[in-house]
Write a structure and sequence with these properties.
By secondary structure, this protein is of the alpha/beta class. The protein is built from eight helices and 21 strands. The strands form seven sheets. Strands 3, 4, 6, 7, 8, 10, 13 and 14 form an eight-stranded mixed beta sheet that branches. Strands 9-11-12 form a three-stranded mixed beta sheet. A two-stranded antiparallel ribbon has the order 1-2.
């Protein structure tokens, strides 16, 4: 049982030492309100428990063959108030005439060293979690942000969920872009050359030749810490920006220099919840508050808004087209990117909305390098970041050929799927970005006339 707040932690029932088989337990240790307890810490504690039990058992067994005479029944080990002892005293309860052998003493010395090392590891894990949460500035949007968000003009492009609703959303996006193209009087002039049905066309809009990414973690907590609750998107964005993979966009942005896509400041945001899902207006209020506080907006910055597990979000207050894996009839998309114009000093902002991706219809297939949770986040984040770079306002690079790919952007054309039983998953490629391996989708390359993971 694990409880938080006025916390008491108990892992398993008390395990008593019987005969010569000592057991190590963590029993009724009280933590203060300020202690951060996370699944990572629990996993470390459980590993300590199992490791020490196995090692100690070997040590006691080799110390003497007279174990049954020790009379250790009903004795047990507990974690002390200061967490300074996580194992039995090697001679606790032993009759004075029974002493461990030389081999047993060596084992117990190694055991004590192991105990100390494991305790230090546990402390470092706690500190890492605390520091990870502490280094994030906190922003709380107010009524002024919400009012400005209502007046903002925005456009967005969604990654459809892998379900029937997602298929319908693709069709809606095609008709929207067709109407926009007709009203602008735009037309394609292909000349007489070879045409590739997948190639993207340029429609005159802005691209992001360089950009700083800022992650926004909405309503994160000790149970869902900033960054780690979604895997490690910050490390992914760092690796993405220094990789060969990101240079696929060079052909669309017109630059090929390194280090143009970097990670900036990440923040935590407290935002009120209600009986209804969030809407894009809420996302804009959040982005506005953070951009206003940081003073960073325009085409040189992009804000990624991460939502905690179980948080639904819809395009508008009709609550009909949403990320809502818990409500099938309204579940249409996994994520989206867009831009907005605010009528104050913030001005133009590029952003993406990143709901929790490790759900049916949005997750990658099992067995990826970083696990399904992390790579589901990485795959969709890569999709949205790359599309935002090449088409931040819906007016730059996308496919305007009148075929089945009409309206699709650089990532849409290469978002493959796979089936396992009744489940549908995204089917990414294994890609090495720097020193780390990820499972992310390829992106469309006009140069190669196909989906690629390198320029």
């Amino acid at each position: 049982m694990v409880e938080f707040g006025r916390t008491r932690l108990s892992i398993g029932p008390p395990l008593y030492l019987r005969s010569w088989e000592p057991s190590v337990i963590l029993r009724q240790k009280a933590f203060s309100r300020k202690t951060v307890v996370t699944p990572l810490l629990l996993a470390v504690i459980q590993r300590i428990q199992l490791g020490i039990y196995s090692f100690a058992k070997q040590g006691y067994a080799s110390a003497t063959n007279l174990g049954p005479l020790w009379g250790l029944d009903r004795k047990f080990c507990t974690v002390t108030a200061a967490l300074r002892s996580i194992a039995c005293d090697p001679e606790a309860g032993l009759p004075s005439l029974i002493r461990p052998s030389q081999k047993g003493e060596k084992r117990m010395k190694r055991f004590h060293l192991l105990r100390s090392a494991l305790f230090c590891l546990m402390v470092l894990c706690v500190l890492a979690v605390v520091l990870n949460a502490a280094d994030k500035a906190t922003v709380t949007p107010g009524d002024a942000d919400r009012e400005i968000a209502k007046q903002a003009k925005s456009v967005y492009h969604a990654l459809p969920a892998r379900n029937e609703n997602g298929d319908a959303l693709r069709s809606t996006d095609i008709h929207r872009k067709l109407a926009s193209k007709s009203s602008s009087g735009e037309h394609d002039d292909h000349g007489s050359g070879t045409r590739y049905e997948g190639d993207l066309q340029y429609h005159g809009g802005a691209v992001l030749q360089s950009v700083v990414s800022h992650n926004i973690y909405v309503n994160s907590s000790a149970l869902c810490p900033p960054n780690t609750c979604w895997g490690n998107p910050e490390q992914f964005l760092k690796d993405y920006g220094k990789s060969d993979f990101v240079h696929i966009v060079d052909q669309y942005t017109g630059l090929n220099s390194d280090d143009r896509y970097t990670l900036g400041t990440s923040v935590a945001v407290n935002y009120p919840t209600s009986a209804h899902p969030y809407t894009d207006a809420d996302m804009l209020a959040i982005v506005h508050a953070v951009a206003l506080a940081s003073g960073e907006s325009g085409y040189g910055n992009i804000y990624h808004v991460f939502l905690t597990p179980g948080t639904d979000e819809c395009f508008d207050a009709t609550y009909s087209v949403c990320y809502s894996p818990d409500n099938g009839p309204t579940f249409y998309f996994c994520a989206y990117h867009g831009s907005a114009d605010f009528n104050d000093s913030v001005g133009h902002v590029v952003y993406s909305v990143e709901p929790f991706q490790n759900v049916g219809g949005c997750s990658v297939k099992p067995g990826t390098p970083n696990g399904q949770l992390a790579d589901s986040t990485n795959n969709v984040l890569s999709h949205e970041e790359t599309e935002a770079i090449t088409d931040p306002d819906g007016s730059a690079w996308w496919n305007s050929e009148c075929n089945g790919l009409y309206g699709q952007e650089i990532g849409d054309e290469c978002s493959f799927i796979t089936f396992a039983g009744n489940n549908v998953y995204f089917d990414p490629s294994a890609v090495r970005l720097g020193e780390h391996k990820y499972a992310i989708q390829p992106e469309y390359s006009n140069r190669k006339h196909g989906c690629a993971t390198a320029p």
